[in-house]
Write a structure and sequence with these properties.
The chain is of the alpha+beta class. Helices cover 54% and strands 18% of the residues. The protein has a single domain (66-259), classed as Heat Shock Protein 90. β6 (233-239) and β7 form a beta hairpin.
């Protein structure tokens, strides 16, 4: 019956084997030819879904880390305003206006990557607040920025906390104030960022201890690892009465672009 249908002229081709064992072989081969690609496709689909889920978790973790930076800056500024309200209300008012400008920038900017130019603009707004607090004579800032680096994308709020640390732990504790130098340059596919202060420095020699001491330094290092993998360097060098030097070296292109899109 089966062979009669197979041999029916309505079929495009027919199989009329002389050996009965051929039919099972053909059936098994057909199942394998169909089943194996389906299995591969299903495994690939599962791997893609797992990768997407992993990326979503990383992105969520990154957002949490970034959101932890902003309160440090906000609380310190509000404390400064509170101390000035009674003694110098005009100065307090001026800082509030400048703070509103910074907050407007932070609330408007939702990207995880920003250009060096945008990060420097945020730092300038922050420094305007700090200079109001300390006085322009007590806080000097020198910027040495490679023009070729200004459009390179970096994680948002990655340099501002370094400047904030330089002021809080270095310059503010030094009689007469001091100077902060911000150096950024591009070289052979890497971006070099450096924040140096001539403040009081620290007696700590272990970098892990210094990471725990500073504002969000561990946070910065973890975010750098999430964006660049192992292709970054983060180094702190500090000596008592000789200031602190923080250096970051990252590739021009992130390791995980899907994380920061």
């Amino acid at each position: 019956m089966i062979f009669s249908r197979i041999l029916d002229s309505s079929y495009l081709f027919a199989l009329n084997p002389t050996n009965p064992a051929v039919i099972p072989v053909v059936l098994i081969s057909t199942v394998l030819c169909v089943g194996i690609p389906l299995k591969i496709w299903n495994n690939t689909r599962i791997e893609i879904k797992l990768k997407e889920r992993e990326t979503q978790l990383l992105r969520s973790r990154y957002e949490v880390l970034k959101s932890q930076i902003n309160p440090h800056f906000l609380f310190n500024t509000l404390n400064s305003i509170a101390s000035l309200i009674r003694t110098n209300p005009e100065e307090a008012r001026d800082i509030i206006v400048k703070l509103s400008s910074v907050l407007r920038t932070l609330l408007k900017e939702r990207r995880n990557l920003v250009s060096v130019e945008e990060e420097l603009d945020l730092i300038d707004k922050y420094l305007a607040i700090e200079k109001s607090r300390f006085g322009r004579d007590r806080l000097k800032v020198i910027q040495e920025i490679d023009p070729d680096s200004r459009e390179i994308l970096i994680p948002a709020m990655i340099l501002q906390p370094l400047v904030e640390n330089a002021i809080k732990h270095g310059i503010s504790k030094k009689i007469g104030g001091g100077t902060i130098k911000i150096r950024i340059k591009k070289n052979e596919g890497y971006l070099f960022c450096e924040v140096v202060d001539d403040g009081v420095g620290t007696e700590l020699k272990d970098e892990n201890d210094m990471l725990d001491r500073g504002i969000g330094l561990n946070n910065i290092k973890e975010r750098l690892k999430m964006v660049y993998g192992d292709r970054f360097r983060f180094h702190i060098d500090s000596n008592i009465d000789d200031g602190t030097d923080v250096r970051i070296e990252v590739p021009v292109k992130p390791e995980t672009p899907q994380l920061v899109e």
